[in-house]
Amino acid sequence: MVRVGKGINMEAVRNSNRKAVLSYLNMYGASSRKKIAEDLKLTTATLSIITNELINNNMVLEIGEVEEKKVGRKKILIDLNEKARYSLGLEIQKRKIIFVITDLKANIIFEKEWVITGEFKLDDFFRILNFINEKIEEIKNLVLGIGILVQGEIQDNKALNCPIPDVLEIVEKHLGIKAIIENNMTGLVVSELYFREQHNNFWVLKYGPGVGTSVVINGKILYGENNKPAEFGHIPLLDKENGYFCPICKKRGCLESEIHFDRIIEEFENKGYTKKKEESDIKFIERVYKKEGKEVLERNLDIIVKYFSIISWTIPVNELILTGEIFSNESILNYFLKKIEEQKINIKKENVHYMKDYSHKKKIAGCLLVLKDFFK
To answer: Rounded distance, CA 24 to CA 39, Å?
Structure first.
């Protein structure tokens, strides 16, 4: 019995060391065996055994020698074999479904999107899953899993505000691979953390079509009760006896119920503007904004700023990252930054900015959920 226990423990240690080496290469890129051993505090003999195993399993590649200033043996660098494994991402939006395949280094291998023009039908979703099955047929044994991103609340792996609440179970059963489900806002923050060199304390604020927020403290997403990320979009600060019910929190007067894109579009349509069939919500809003929609949109931005000016003093962070396609509009972004400065939030002006490479980070966020799980 003792021998079995020792054997199991040793195998656990080997697995842990293998994962540590892979995570190191993922974080720092190509390195020498000596450097890896020193940083991970492994003996050179142990590191040599591990890297040889990883090379034999095609997870790691030797990529050549490095010239050194001092005379002696040249260092041979090793790196991840980016084609050794693949990750899938599936984002389910209100009017669109996006599918992405990345390699082990988060490079996009394939991407496709489907536009939802009418009612979300389960048969249509199964057709999408059939397409995915055919697309990954040749690499299925190399697929690590699929990250599913949805809008709204997730509870017990159920997407409560998704047209298909049990989407995780359906995807896993249909594709026969491991699935991870997360709120799209959390997925975006995971993507931001993946590419950041410094994991300091920051807020992420997304606007469009609703409002989403997430807080990162010491490089980790802040969660509350029932594993829900900290956010302020459903705080009922506005005293509203009449008005819109929020479809997520079921309350009147929360930020989401007041500033959702649906409210803006409704006001624009009441002004006589018609949204074109091929036009996205954001493109319609931008088009009317340039004509006579400034007052409507800027009123909503003012509400967001007032909310955040209060919230920013409750959790001490030093950076605010804005996301959402609406903030990629320079005029709208500048107006928001001006109002932020006027409100004197608890963050320095120079530390409020639009997320770098937002579209790319958003696109691969589902894939990064899987890669994060693999490299953790």
So the answer is: 9
Nearest to 273 by CA among 293, 258, 257, 259: 293
CA distance 255 to 237: 8
* β 211-217/202-207 pair status: antiparallel
Is cis: bond before 209, omega within 30 of 0? Answer: yes
Note the pLDDT tens digit of each residue in 330-354.
999 999 999 998 988 888 888 999 9
Q: Cα separation of 99 and 103, whole Å?
A: 14
Q: Is 183 exposed, middle or buried (0-12, 13-18, 19+ CB in 10 A)?
A: buried
Per-residue pLDDT reduced to its tens digit, 27-48: 899 999 999 999 999 999 999 9
Q: What is residue 239's predicted lDDT score, i.e. its pLDDT?
A: 65
Q: Which residues of 230-242 are buried (b: 16+ CB within 10 A; e: fewer)?
A: bbbbbbeebeeee
Quick check: 113 and 98 in contact, CB under 8 A? yes
CA 198 to chain centre: 17
Pairing relation of β-strands 108-115 and 96-103? antiparallel
- Backbone angles phi and psi of 342, in degrees to 5: -65, -35
Q: In what order do the strands lie in the sheet with 220-221?
A: 220-221, 211-217, 202-207, 320-323, 352-354
pLDDT digits (tens, 9 = 90+) for 192-238: 999 887 767 899 999 988 888 889 998 888 887 666 776 777 777 66
Which residues are CB-contacts of 213 (< 8 A; sequence separation ≥ 6)?
A: 185, 203, 204, 205, 206, 230, 231, 232, 233, 311
Low-confidence ranges of the chain (pLDDT < 70): 1-8, 66-73, 199, 225-227, 230, 237-243
